Amino acid sequence: MADIIVVYHSGFGHTKKVAEHVAQGAAAELVAISENGELTEADWAKLNAAKAIVFGSPTYMGNVSWQFKKFADATSRIWYNRGWQDKIFGGFTNSASPVGDKGLTLSALQTLASQHGGLWVSLGQLPSNTKATQPTDPNTLGGSVGLLVQSPADASVDEIPQGHLDTAVAYGKRIAAISARFSAA
Ligand SMILES: Cc1cc2nc3c(=O)[nH]c(=O)nc-3n(C[C@H](O)[C@H](O)[C@H](O)COP(=O)(O)O)c2cc1C
After folding, report:
1. How high is the ipTM of this complex?
2. Quick check: 122 and 146 in contact, CB under 8 A?
3. How many domains does the chain have?
4. Of 73, 116, 118, 145, which has the fewest CB atoms closer than 10 Å, so is most exposed?
5. Taking the CA atoms of the chain, what radius of gyration do you get in angstroms?
6. What is the CATH number for 95?
7. What does pTM read for this prediction?
8. Residue 151 CB less than 6 A away from ligand 1
9. From the CB of 63, is ligand 1 less than 6 Å away?
10. Is the pLDDT of residue 185 over 80?
11. CB neighbours (10 Å) of residue 67?
12. How far is Cα 126 from Cα 139, in angstroms, rounded to an integer?
């Protein structure tokens, strides 16, 4: 099984695209939360065996999607048994507005990781925030807690700004590098 799992929900494909880029950077396996907010038993086994878990959700109405929340609540038995204690965690969200209350979603992801006794990986990248900033630059949304991505409301899945996707790959690489440091020799 893969050392790193990116578990995500995506209603319309944009967050899936972000998840694919995080997974590319982390050499991770993707696990999709279904439209009913569920995982297969095989997927749960992958999460339980992973060294690192990366949570991904679109921001819907200023928080995670209900499907992601259903998944989060379904981890309560694992929480009780401390099944994910001391795993590495990261998280990302994607939404239409540059801000769009994405911070609340990231905070929910970080809190979920913390409830499980996890070690949270911040974004670890400087913001691109000068007048000269271009859409191809990294971290133009200035995230720090985790990865923020904007998919403008009229953007197709193929129109997510490249800089945001590059930032996703870099975040995945950081999670993999930190995970490797925590691996038993
Ligand atoms: C029910 C719903 C609520 C949304 N709420 C927000 C929001 O609070 N902030 C925001 O910036 N975008 C919001 N959006 C836009 C989505 O975050 C955006 O379209 C995102 O790319 C969807 O990702 P997905 O294709 O993975 O589902 C909302 C969209 C939907 C369908």
Report:
1. 0.99
2. yes
3. 1
4. 73
5. 15
6. 3.40.50.360
7. 0.98
8. yes
9. no
10. no
11. 22
12. 7
